[in-house]
Amino acid sequence: MQIVRGLAAIVGVAMVLMGGLWILQGLDIVRWPASSFMLGDIVWTRNGAVLAVLGLVLIWLGRKRA
Questions:
Q1: Angle CA(19)–CA(36)–CA(13) in degrees, nearest 5?
Q2: Residue (of 9, 62, 11, 18) closest to 38 by Cα position
Q3: Stretch among 17-21, 35-39, 49-53, 55-59 having the lowest mean pLDDT
Q4: What residue numbers bound the domain in which 35 lies?
Q5: In the chain, count of helices (H) and strands (E)?
Q6: What is d(CA 45, CA 51) in angstroms, rounded to the nearest whole number?
Q7: What is the dihedral of CA 36, 30, 24, 40, to 10 degrees?
Q8: Structurally, how many domains does the chain consist of?
Q9: Which terms are listed as keywords in the entry (predicted)?
Q10: Which residues are CB-contacts of 21 (< 8 A; sequence separation ≥ 6)?
């Protein structure tokens, strides 16, 4: 069970980082890549926020003691 919790925490960190990138692209703060369809689209800001919150939940579950 320890391995599953560790993997959940790692995947959670990746989700938080990717969600943060999506939020910044959706808000048109990060313009990388320059031709991305996500730039300035508020839908991707929302998607990024949802992904980041789910990532935080996974991190919390991964660090929670049995």
A1: 20
A2: 18
A3: 35-39
A4: 1-64
A5: 2, 0
A6: 10
A7: -50
A8: 1
A9: Membrane, Transmembrane, Transmembrane helix
A10: 30, 48
